[in-house]
Amino acid sequence: MKSFLAFLLAMGITVTLGDAYCFTKINKPGESDKGCVLNGKLYPFGHISRTDDCYRCSCTQNQISCCSLFHTPVGYNKEKCKIVFNKRSCNYDVVENNDPSKDCFVHSRVG
């Protein structure tokens, strides 16, 4: 029974970590001569490991496809804590409302 519970926990972690928010934007005709435009910034063709908005993208002449590098916290004490996006780490910090220097425990996130 313990092995089965450990397996379920491992699978839950794997599924959670693999669930990123993704999207594709089709380039307008003539827009893609030098790369792909995303949120007003031009990115070169090829793989983009991290955009200014914390996405990993692939840019071609036809489209740009991106997936988030962050996961949004959903399982935390919403009365005691708040979420703050940390653009430097591309992640959400969950901190206490009354003392933002203290982290809160997060038990689940979604992409």
From TrEMBL:
<keyword id="KW-1015">Disulfide bond</keyword>
<dbReference type="InterPro" id="IPR008735">
    <property type="entry name" value="PSP94"/>
</dbReference>
<protein>
    <recommendedName>
        <fullName>Beta-microseminoprotein</fullName>
    </recommendedName>
</protein>
<keyword id="KW-0964">Secreted</keyword>
<dbReference type="GO" id="GO:0005576">
    <property type="term" value="C:extracellular region"/>
</dbReference>
<keyword id="KW-0732">Signal</keyword>
<dbReference type="Pfam" id="PF05825">
    <property type="entry name" value="PSP94"/>
</dbReference>
<feature type="signal peptide">
    <location>
        <begin position="1"/>
        <end position="20"/>
    </location>
</feature>
<comment type="similarity">
    <text>Belongs to the beta-microseminoprotein family.</text>
</comment>
